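Sync notes, pocket subgroup
Present: LS, DG
LS reminded everyone that the earlier model was apo-only. Rerun requested with zinc ion included. Inputs:
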Amino acid sequence: MLAPPTCLICRAPLARRARGPALCTRCTAGLESAPGALLRADGLDGGFAALPYAGVGRRLVAALKFGRLRSAAELAAALIEERAPAGLLDGVLVPVPASPLRLARRGMDPAREIASALAARTGLAAADPLRRRDLRRQRGGGRARRMRNPPRVRVTGPLPETVVLVDDVVTTGATIDTCARALRRGGALRIRAVALAAVPGGRGA
Ligand SMILES: [Zn+2]
């Protein structure tokens, strides 16, 4: 027996099965009215987040993390591709590496899933040359402590000249900044970033 279709973002029941991503009218309207934002981090040559990390953006990020990873990542990739400024999505897609603690706890990696969906949509190549080690647990540390203790990121493989970092959520921008510096030290020449969502008014957005 088929379960009745529900909205990918808020899980409201839907009257009928949709052809594209299954979204209720409220979430569709929320996505349409939510503005994208430019991302700024010291090491970046440009960046963009498709949604604010608030309202429907926050609920879509939650959908990525709690059980609807694949279809939420496909919607995230579609939003990023549709909304990114011209010329930004050009280069090899590189996911921001997940925190080993988070990966061990949840066993899923939203940034990698979005990068893979974005590669499938755009035809851009994807690579996974970054590895991350957290110095300290970041949870509950607050923004100031996260800025003081950014994760340690190293390059494990050959780097393309032009990289597009891919992340699910940008909060302080510290992780993107650390990744951009590691890529630059490893020889990448142009480094941009795209994310599904960014904290409004945060340093990253
Ligand atoms: Zn909905």
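DG: The chain has a mean pLDDT of 88.
LS: The beta strands are 37-38, 47-52, 92-95, 130-133, 152-155, 162-170, 190-198.
Action: DG to write up.
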